Amino acid sequence: MKIQVERDILADAVAWTARALPARPTVPVLAGMRLHAEADLTLSSFDYDVSAQATIPVMTEEEGSALVSGRLLAEISRSLPARPVQIASDGGKAVLSCGSATFTLLTMPEEEYPALPEMPQAAGSVGSDAFASAVSQSATAAGRDDTLPALTGVRIEIEGDTLTLISTDRYRLAVRELRWSPARPDLSAAVLVPARALAETARSLTSGAEVSIALALPGEGGPESGTGGDGMIGFEGGGRQTTTRLLGGEFPRYQALLPSHANATAELSAPLSAPPSPGSARAIDTSAPDVSDRAVSARARAGTSTAADRSGRAGLHRSSLTASR
Length: 325
Prior knowledge:
about 325 residues, mainly beta, DNA Polymerase III, Chain A, domain 2, 9-stranded antiparallel β-sheet
């Protein structure tokens, strides 16, 4: 393998792919990152639960592949000067050159590296920014107690063109709905995705306009799919793709906890120019020409409760509203 690639492009792709490297690999080769060069360069990592692949443009002089330490490559790529990077592998080593800097990395046996799971069948697509915002708002209530694995995930319910994301740690509940474009209009499914992996994936796929979501339900696919019968969800966008094994267990029934109606509403004619700092109050000048008398109208009295806003902010918000002009 012999390639040349831009430093920033390589560093970004290596940092993203390294997110799937295990902290304590059960076998040494899982600490490796596989580089496969053809017309483009594909970087891969896998820990048997999460896989990550990034494809970037390169100038390929000689096709080939190499398996090197992923964390070491990430540290090196971050420290390189802003110059083109040359990578060449031969035998048991790979040489990385950039300007006056040269690094030699020992390679690992590629034949011992496990095959990455195949991407499941595409279920639909959603805007990357909207998806990242929804995941950020819903995953905040997920639990962190590994003895209750079902509560460490985000439940994704698919019903036609609506995605619903739910998480709870038994003390908090977050529910968020958003529209998406399903591959089939009659698609209906519910899966449980690890919250941490979902949050990291959603944040990292905003470079593209859309995120494609692929889904293999538990029991679907054979041994070659790599799901192990547990089911798998995949995300793809901006030249990157990742798969995550689904969680098992029964998620709590949350519908009964949500109010069926709202006791108070608040209307704003336009978004505020900047969000207030936590714990502070914002005074609004209703005499300004762009703020009408209806700009801040709250039909509420002290002591009432607001309902959970499923289409906007996540969570089950219960607070008292007091409005004055």
